[in-house]
Design goal:
With 125 residues, the chain is α+β, with helices and mostly antiparallel strands. The protein is built from 4 helices and 5 strands; from the N terminus they run H-H-H-E-H-E-E-E-E. A hairpin with a 5-residue loop joins strand 3 and strand 4. Helix 1 packs across helix 3. The longest helix has 24 residues. The radius of gyration is 16 Å and the shape is globular.
């Protein structure tokens, strides 16, 4: 699917605004920070918070990156996403933009990735 420059700019602007709001809320939420510290992991606190708030808004139980993983993450854990299931959740990562020489710049763009809840998977047989 092709997107116009305006559509891309609107998408990234919206994603940045959602991220900024989530980040402000995350900085004030000491309960979620304690949960994050207990779970540990290689993901950022802000992405953890983002996904946890999505899980709560959809009344999905569990902890991000434990009970919600990428398609590949579930596969590596010995599970498979049930046929026909669509991702309900997302996480955010930030990617450095490279210049024409292939060198990373200080500019970062958000990348949204999709997660599946534990209710959407079954154990591999």
């Amino acid at each position: 699917m092709k997107f116009t420059k305006e559509e891309k700019n609107k998408y990234f602007k919206n994603l940045r605004e959602r991220w900024a709001t989530s980040k402000l809320l995350a900085d004030k939420d000491k309960t979620v920070e304690a949960l994050y510290n207990e779970v540990g992991g290689t993901f950022s606190y802000y992405s953890f918070y983002w996904t946890l708030m999505e899980m709560r808004s959809l009344d999905l139980e569990g902890v991000p990156y434990v009970d919600a993983k990428t398609f590949k993450g579930w596969k590596e854990a010995g599970f498979i996403v049930k046929k026909g299931e669509k991702s309900k959740l997302s996480g955010i990562t930030w990617l450095a933009v490279k210049n024409k020489k292939g060198e990373e710049t200080e500019f970062m763009i958000p990348k949204e990735y999709h997660l599946f809840h534990k209710s959407q998977v079954e154990e591999l047989k």
